[in-house]
Structure prediction request, 132 residues.
Amino acid sequence: MHPTKLQGIIPPMITPLKGDDELDREGTVRLTEHLVAGGVHAIFLLGTTGEAQSLTYRLRYEFVELVCRQVAGRIPVLVGVTDTAFIESVRLAEHAAKCGAVGVVAAPPYYFAPSQQELIEYYTALADALPL
Prediction:
């Protein structure tokens, strides 16, 4: 796979919800279409604006799958995979790749205070394990 050149307007997308653990599927489709029609160059899912750490893993996977299906390759989709569990970051990245996302975004695991060397080791291991 050739890397996608990312540039322009890439908004972090909120995660529309109907309840504590229920995705607003209709709202997600409408918001996705609104962003695409508005001329954005890519969409970023599950960042801090999408409140990923407040969502169950099932809901995160469902959201990624729905948005990627709705976008249908018209613009790139990026998926935030930040988690305290390394393997959960890798699993979500694998799911994102299967759904058609072009890249992932990873902040350092929260609740840890790693040294600079530990951060380098973390991102090296993560990059080696990720499909995107």
Summary: The chain has four helices and five strands. The mean pLDDT is 93.
